[in-house]
């Protein structure tokens, strides 16, 4: 470079320049180099005009002119040096990498930065939060995407630089199995979204806690430590777990607790889960079970009657196994066993009033006092009535009077009775009813086996299905009677042993017709009948005159079952053959009289 004084070159000066020292000859190519304190500037002039047309004598002193081919080597060397010096300002910068940039300006929409390139870059101000907005003159890390986009601008991103740096940090946390702090920001399908700073991660619902969570919304906007359990490099997705962090802490507490635990100790716990057989309680790292029998000295139907999920309760350790970490807990053990004082408070024969706490199919449980219950067995409710459905007559919560029949404090059992509050009517049954008595009474209850009829003074009689009609056997007694009906009947049997009275409606209606039926029909007789029903036993046929016969299923051939039975419907007429009349059993056995089926 020449040590000439610095000259200012612009278009106006060049237009006025006249150089007299140069021969006015056309130049194929000339290069003008201006010496500058900052950066060299190359201008290339290609024209057939002379240099005299462009440069003045006053400016010539600051210009070194190289002409012709004689100095071509020097020109090329000078050009290479200048380019190398220019490129050295950014030759370590490439696309798709994080670089340091200097903030040189901030507008309402953009942040302008200098990256040491030929032009400045702009970053959208939306990539900065108000608290993170940089100061002019400060250096920030940015991501260089492209040197030139379609508009010739440099593409830069502050967010991508932050994302890449944070991604590398989080991968390092995952590899080292170190916890990372994050904030739960919203719910999504299957779990929650956690903000880990720049990057968001997915928290599955099953990994949110070691205990069931009633409402995930309670966790939103709360900060916790998380374990990164999955890294998807391709999709740049993260899966985290809070449960893993909590379990690790619980394991430490569990080890500490198991060294201090002992039978009889009282601990605070949180009800974690409730089942039909008991409730699981979190003791702070260790779960214990309260069996349903250890909730109360009295009887309960379900643990939910005593506790609810989330309740903080005091429990007593009644057993534990250190090898399996199984702990049995109790609530009733926290109070004195009331059964110890039962022999001093109650005696057989005492009449007690208590509240119905449970109704089972076999009896009623009565609470005599807190924790003390007695059972009224279904057989101890009535002397003579057949009780089948207790909820029809008794309700939980009702007060009921009963007599103590039996006490066993060791087994914690008290037997009660209701019928013992009255005299046994069976002791005087002979004065109230006799075999052959024709009476009238109301139907108390109808079952599939027969009907119970009120005989007065808490005495009931029973009509079996076969005693409703001489010749008709009902599929259900409701074909003849319904509850509440007033009917006439005859007493046909009294059993002192079974304490049962058998009644009959057919004996009241008419004489036994079966001797006449046996004389009327003989084996081989042909007749027509009307189909009453078809069931598993066979075909039930109305023979007329209130006589019902049966075509047993085993007397119907496979061919008839396949080709003929499907065509028969109730109400249809069929041809029959009499097989046998059973007078004693009051049955007529028939068979279908149909032509052979191929």
Class derived from helix and strand content: mainly beta
Shape: elongated
Radius of gyration: 53 Å
The number of E-state strands comes to 33
Spatial order of the strands forming the largest sheet: 6-5-4-7-8
Q: Work out the helix count.
A: 9
Q: Which features would summarize this protein structure in a list?
A:
598 residues, mainly beta, OB fold (Dihydrolipoamide Acetyltransferase, E2P), 7 domains, 5-stranded antiparallel beta sheet, 9 helices, 33 strands, 14% helix, elongated, disordered N terminus
Describe the protein's architecture and organization.
- The protein is built from nine helices and 33 strands.
- The protein has 598 residues and is mostly beta strands.
- It folds into seven domains: 11-87, no CATH class; 97-162, Nucleic acid-binding proteins (OB fold (Dihydrolipoamide Acetyltransferase, E2P)), CATH 2.40.50; 177-246, Beta Barrel (OB fold (Dihydrolipoamide Acetyltransferase, E2P)); 261-334, OB fold (Dihydrolipoamide Acetyltransferase, E2P), CATH 2.40.50.140; 338-421, Nucleic acid-binding proteins (OB fold (Dihydrolipoamide Acetyltransferase, E2P), Beta Barrel), CATH 2.40.50.140; 425-509, OB fold (Dihydrolipoamide Acetyltransferase, E2P), CATH 2.40.50.140; 519-592, OB fold (Dihydrolipoamide Acetyltransferase, E2P) (Beta Barrel).
- The longest helix has 18 residues, at 158-175.
């Amino acid at each position: 470079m020449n040590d000439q004084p610095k000259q200012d070159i612009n278009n106006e000066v060049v237009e006025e320049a006249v150089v007299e020292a140069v021969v006015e000859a056309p130049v194929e190519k000339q290069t003008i180099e201006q010496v500058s304190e900052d950066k060299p500037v190359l201008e290339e002039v290609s024209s057939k005009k002379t240099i005299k047309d462009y440069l003045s004598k006053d400016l010539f002193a600051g210009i070194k002119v190289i002409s012709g081919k004689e100095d071509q080597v020097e020109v090329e060397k000078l050009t290479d040096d200048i380019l190398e010096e220019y490129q050295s300002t950014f030759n370590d910068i490439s696309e798709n990498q994080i670089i340091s940039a200097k903030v040189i300006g901030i507008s309402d929409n953009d942040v302008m930065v200098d990256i040491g390139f030929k032009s400045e870059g702009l970053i959208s101000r939306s990539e900065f939060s108000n608290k993170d907005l940089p100061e002019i003159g400060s250096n920030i890390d940015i991501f260089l995407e492209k040197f030139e986009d379609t508009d010739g601008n440099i593409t830069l991103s502050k967010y991508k630089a932050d994302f890449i740096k944070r991604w590398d940090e989080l991968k390092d946390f995952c590899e080292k199995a170190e916890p990372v702090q994050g904030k739960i920001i919203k719910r999504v399908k299957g779990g929650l979204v956690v903000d880990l700073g720049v990057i968001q991660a997915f928290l599955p619902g099953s990994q949110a806690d070691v205990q069931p969570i009633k409402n995930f919304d309670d966790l939103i906007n709360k900060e916790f430590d998380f374990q990164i359990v999955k890294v998807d490099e391709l999709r740049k997705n993260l899966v985290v777990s809070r449960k893993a962090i909590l379990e690790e802490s619980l394991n430490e507490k569990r080890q500490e607790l198991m060294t201090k635990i002992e039978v009889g100790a009282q601990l605070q716990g949180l009800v974690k889960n409730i089942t039909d057989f008991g409730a699981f309680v979190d003791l702070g790292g260790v779960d214990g079970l309260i069996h349903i029998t250890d909730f109360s000295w009295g009887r309960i139907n379900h643990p939910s009657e005593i506790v609810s999920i989330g309740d903080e309760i005091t429990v007593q350790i009644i057993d534990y196994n250190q090898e399996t970490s199984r702990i049995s807990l109790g609530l009733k053990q926290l109070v004195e066993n009331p059964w110890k004082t039962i022999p001093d408070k109650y005696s057989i024969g005492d009449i007690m009033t208590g509240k119905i706490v449970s109704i089972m199919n076999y009896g009623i449980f009565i609470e005599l006092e807190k924790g003390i219950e007695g059972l009224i067995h279904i057989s101890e409710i009535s002397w003579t009535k057949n009780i089948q459905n207790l909820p029809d007559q008794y309700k939980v919560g009702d007060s009921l009077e009963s007599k103590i029949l039996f006490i066993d404090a060791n087994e914690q059992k008290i037997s009660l009775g209701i019928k013992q509050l009255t005299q046994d009517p069976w002791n005087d049954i002979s004065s109230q009813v006799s075999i052959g008595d024709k009476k009238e009474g109301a139907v108390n209850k109808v079952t599939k086996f027969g009907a119970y009829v009120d005989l007065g003074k808490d005495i009931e009689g029973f009509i079996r299905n076969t005693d409703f009609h001489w010749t008709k056997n009902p599929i259900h007694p409701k074909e003849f009677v319904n509850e509440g009906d007033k009917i006439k009947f005859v007493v046909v049997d009294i059993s002192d042993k079974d304490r049962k009275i058998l009644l009959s409606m057919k004996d009241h209606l008419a004489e036994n017709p079966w001797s006449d039926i046996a004389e009327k029909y003989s084996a081989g007789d042909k007749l027509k009948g009307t189909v009453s029903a078809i069931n598993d036993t066979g075909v039930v046929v109305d023979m007329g005159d209130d006589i019902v016969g049966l075509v047993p299923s085993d007397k119907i051939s496979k061919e008839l079952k396949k080709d003929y039975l499907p065509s028969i419907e109730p109400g249809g007429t069929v041809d029959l053959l009499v097989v046998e009349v059973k007078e004693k059993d009051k049955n007529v056995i028939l068979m279908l009289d149909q032509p052979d089926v191929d």
